[in-house]
Amino acid sequence: MNPKLPYVLLVGAAVVIFILSCMLLSRGRRSPGCESQPSIVEKTGSVSQSLVFADLTPEEMAQVVRYLQANLGLPLVDASRAKPSDNCIASVDLQVPAKAEVLRFLDGGGARPAREALAVLYFGNQPEPNVTEYVVGPLPTPAYHRDVTVQKYGGKVPYHRRPTLSSEYKQVGAFLESVAFAAAPSFLQEVLEYDSTKVAFQTTAPHGFQPGDRKSWFVLFQNVSGFFLHPVGLEVLVDHSSLDMSRWAVSRVFYNGQYYRDMVQLESAYVQGRISVEKVRKAPRDGDFSSMKPRAPSAALFPLQYEPQGPRYSIRSNLVVFQAWSFAFGMSVSTGLRLFDIRHKGERVAYEISVQEALSVYGSNCPGGMSTRYMDGSFGLGRYTSPLVRGVDCPYLATYLDVHSLANSQVPRVTKNALCIFEQNLGSPLRRHYSNLQSLYYGGLVNSALVVRSIATVGNYDYVWDFIFYQNGAIEGKVQATGYPSSSFLHGDGLRYGNRLWEHTLGMIRTHSINYKVDLDVGGLKNSLVAHDMAFEMTRAPWSPEQQIERPRLTKKVLDTEDQAAFRLQSKMPRYIYFAANSKNKWGHQRGYRIQITSFAGDHIPEASSMERAISWARYQLAVTRRKEEEPTSTSIYNQNDPWTPTIAFADFINNETITNEDLVAWITTGFLHIPHSEDIPNTVTVGNSVGFLLRPYNYYDLDPSIYSHDGVFFTSEQDFTACEINPLACLPKTASCLPNFPPFTYDGFQNM
């Protein structure tokens, strides 16, 4: 044996031990935490100006309540415990100033508009009960109020049109339990094993068939998790139109395909054995098949996104600035998320983008389902904005904001983490090209966009509302639907109206229609509406006249009137339709913003329907009208409970007025048909249930503004693409090898329910 061999082996072992020690030490060393860098944000927008659109603070809401209590000269009961015969404050929200006033302030150096609130009051304790709307101001110290009801609606709002308070639903529930159900003890106990803790109710709307009706079907379900999928077959029609609750009565009862005059007749038929009983298997408290508890244990963690150098957007009060974008945001109690004064590169492109309404029309062979036409704005898309769960509803490191509201109570309510704002890498290029012809290069831009999100949970449905801002100057409005499908008790010919989801559960067919208001100001206040499309023309090849060529050509049309600009839901609409400015770009084209709609809506309710005018906005996939201060919304919270004489009928907005070189508003309707299926169990997924619209620059710029983005990547075959100064992606091992600081998980969604 070579005498040097032991020494060589010893030295080799020492080297191996040293290398392994280094590896272990490096593995144990924690990567540095991410540090925020100064954001590159264009100086645009002013907090002092954006506050003109800011939601009311809790202090301002409380001041309005105190002022009304002291100055109306009438007793006001807290809406949370008010009877129909009481006076109460139903809601308090921001009164958005008139656009002309705001623009004088924002653009012309004019005075700041008075900050005011809009208070909706129910006057049930009057000789002529009615709903009255007051503008109260100036805030924060109110000194005046003025009745604007007649000015807005042409007359007093009849009391029967009032949206139903939570207290009224509780009172109807108490009536059912203490009065109605007392008339059928044997049926309820032996068939349903009834006690008040085992039953959940879902109500329907509208409440009847004619003005003045307030008759509601209450559908009974097992009170378990996901109760919407556990109907028991019993539905009760309650007439609660009287302001005297002692006069409330059961008008009709439905059980397993049969109608009865009242609970007394149902009980009598049961005792005499004249009822076909369908006993429903008692579900466990967790709902069994309707439980959303995962059926699999946790495994490898899903991907997360983070900002290695901190957020690249800023939020100051209600003003958001992101790259070339700035806008103000707010939350309406009735209509939900809304944006104002949206600017790109410092120039306003839209004055307002807001949700208007979410409508769902159901079909069933049960009375509750077949009579349901929910207009969710009446219930409150903003009021029912739900607390967001960090890491699921929005990225974990998004910015979360609270929302304050006052509705159905005289005490302001806070919804924690009701809004989230985040920049999202969409995982695909916004644009790119790989050149392997002539010159060799790669150029691309990551598609990173800013998202503003809220989620409204109205009963069984959850609506995920997004406004998305892209680096090329495009804005997207999007809604994704999830939550539980409503169901009916499966009987008879029920499969004509949906699919069977469980033993006794019919997933009811329904249409969903969403309406938006888009007040574009493209290159200024005055715009025109222009349609571009294509048509094939036949021509002879100039170089070979005996040959024919079919070539597409551009078609152009200016839409001069509101009638021309009202496109029915299923009609053909020009594929390029845009708001055109009075200015031109470098190439001589009118600067514009194009409206592009994504929708697969079901059919609209027939116009012969007695209630269709209340939802006539849903006739149109797009309608462009002259902007009028007296037409601020496409619908009214009062339309739900009296759709037969609607307080606002959108169809009246369209009266053939000229829309050339005017301040215009686009009313966009998008939606989808939902036929629930077995994969909607336990509940509906967002995939495939996403609709909305895009606002895209169309000759607005001289070239794509995203070419000025700091995120661009470009290198040629002759460059060192591993060098940071050539290719920022090459620096990622240094610039993005930090560990983000994940704050502790918290959730306040179950407090103050």
TrEMBL record:
Signal peptide limits: none
Residue intervals passing through the bilayer: 6-25
Keyword Metal-binding assigned: yes
Protein EC: 1.4.3.-
Cellular component GO terms held in the UniProt record: plasma membrane
Gene Ontology biological process terms in this record: amine metabolic process
The protein, known as: Amine oxidase
Species name: Oxyruncus cristatus
Lineage: Eukaryota, Metazoa, Chordata, Craniata, Vertebrata
